[in-house]
Amino acid sequence: MRHARRRIVRRVTRLAAVGGLLLGGAMVAQAAMASETPPAATRPLAATTGAGNTGARLVARLGTARTAGDWIGADGRPVVAVTDQATAREVRRAGAEAKVVPHSMDELKSATAALRSAPRVAGTAWAVDYRTNRVVVSADSTVSAGDWSRMSQVAARIGSFVRMERLKGTFTTRLNGAQPILSTGGRCSAGFNVTNGQSDFILTAGHCGPAGSTWFADNQGNQQLGRTVSSTFPGNDFSLVQYASGKAGDGADVVAIGGGNGVRITGVADAAVGQRVFRSGSTSGLHDGQVTALNATVNYPEGTVTGLIQTTVCAEPGDSGGPLFSDGIALGVTSGGSGDCTAGGTTFFQPVTRALAALNVKLIVAAQNAGGAAGSAAPSPAPSGSAAQGAVTPSAASPGSSAPVTGAQGQTLLARLTDTRNVGPGLLVVAGSLIALVATRYIRAEQDRKAYQRYYSATWG
Q: Which residues contact 44 (CB under 8 A, 6 or more apart)?
């Protein structure tokens, strides 16, 4: 019985040592390979390609009379809607997929112009759906039967490619981030940090408050953050909050995504239909979805806003002004929408590129990319369940924070084992495992030698 126990112990020890050798080798190999890529703290939240830019360039070159928009296909390839086979061949030669459609962008824009010229109905929105080659008019639950009927008549006069749809929720601004900013008017979320070269500002939603509004970082009004110096709403939906100190502080290129984590912002770009995007807000945190339309028009109760990015990302009151981004590229700030993050909904965003141009400011981006803030508006793969994927920790990345970015948190066991800093620990595991194997072999040999001596001693008498 005692010998059987010894054999079991020896086998378990050998298996553990072999496992240690394999684990240590994997740690060293993975760490060596990982050292060739940027560290996790500076990687974007999602990978990307240049599909969005490819489609946009083709549309710009071929013109709106021959095309009807572009989007990113399910396979990540750019798709361009075209009106004839000759244009389709040009698109395919350029490496994109072509879809022949009956209506050009000129026709679709003419339809949206007709909708704008009709009497305004609060609670309605419209946008061009590139993928179906239609103009989709949405009406929320506040639109009366009479207004719905009148809008339907306008759509019928435009043409059969205008589709009407009813929504359950209501189109509202999301007043009340990444991080929260508070004023007497309500709560919003900080969007992106920007600068004019002399002073730094928070870019947020215009409906959050008019020029002159004072913002605080706490409910008690003890930590004054800054004051709104420029605001545009309706029409557009953006504003600038000038920091009271004049500077955003260290970590200004990071947007918070909840749980003490953040994402580095390395550039700015226009969104693309079909692109996977992420939104952060002070109420609902980090959520993702897809861009479904560009240049959308929304008739809020307060007024009409045009040129918005339409998405399937959810949002709730207090998320207004929060950042929309993908692959570390700034895309928009939260304007409004319908639904919530329990049932889902539609959310609209003010494009950052348009706001920066109108306000004559520049995005504050990561130092390594400060020389050129051009980003790629392209698809991102489905995110993992972790909000901290590829994120950085901004320590105390509240607006105006002076705390530096300190590195990744919330890593899985596998991520920690394959960290580039684990070459040393990996070698120690390998060495320990080898010692265990040698020791196991020596102990077995010594036991066999003593058993041999005992046996022959008994034989010799």
A: 263, 264, 266, 327, 328, 329, 390
Output DSSP code: residue 206.
Answer: G
380-398 CB burial, b ≥16 within 10 A, e <16:
beebeeebbbbbbbbbbbb
What is the tens place of the pLDDT at every residue in 256-307? 888 888 899 999 999 999 999 999 998 899 999 999 999 999 999 999 999 9
Give the C-alpha separation, 433 to 19, whole Å.
8
Positions marked catalytic: 207, 237, 320
Strand-pairing partners, residue 362, are 195
Q: What is the pLDDT of residues 92-147, one digit of tens each?
A: 999 999 999 999 999 999 999 999 999 999 999 999 999 999 999 999 999 999 99
Helix (H) or strand (E) holding 297: strand 285-300
Pick from 264, 268, 287: nearest CA to 350:
268
The answer to whether 331 touches 269, Cβ cutoff 8 Å, is yes
Q: For residue 215, what are its two tokens? A: 């913002």
Quick one: residue 367, left, alpha or beta (phi over 0 = left, psi -120 to 50 = alpha)?
A: alpha
Amino acid at 246: G
Find the helix or strand (DSSP H, E) in which 415 lies: helix 413-417
Vertex 370 angle, CA 369 and 373, to 5° = 70
Task: Give the integer Cα–Cα distance in Å for 263 and 405.
Answer: 10
What is the phi/psi pair of residue 311, to 5°? -140, 170
Closest by Cα among 211, 201, 202 to 232? 211
How far from 229 is each of 166, 188, 200, 215, 244, CA to CA, in Å? 38, 16, 12, 11, 11
Structure-token match 């557009």, residue found: 236
Query: Of 218, 216, 238, nearest to 227 (Cα)?
Result: 216
Contact in structure between 27 and 39 (CB atoms under 8 Å): no
Angle, in degrees to the nearest 10, between helices 51-62 and 85-93: 140
H or E element in which residue 336 lies: strand 329-340
| Bridge partners (DSSP) listed for residue 97 | 79
- DSSP lists the bridge partners of residue 201 as 194, 242
Distance of alpha carbon 237 from alpha carbon 231, whole angstroms: 8
Rounded-to-integer distance, Cα 91 and Cα 110, Å: 24
Element containing residue 13 per DSSP (H, E)? helix 2-34
Q: Hey, CA dihedral for 398, 399, 403, 408, is it positive or negative?
A: positive
For 383-406, give the DSSP string.
Answer: PPS-TTTT-BB-SS-STT--PPP-
Q: DSSP character for 384? A: P
Cα–chain center distance at 57: 23
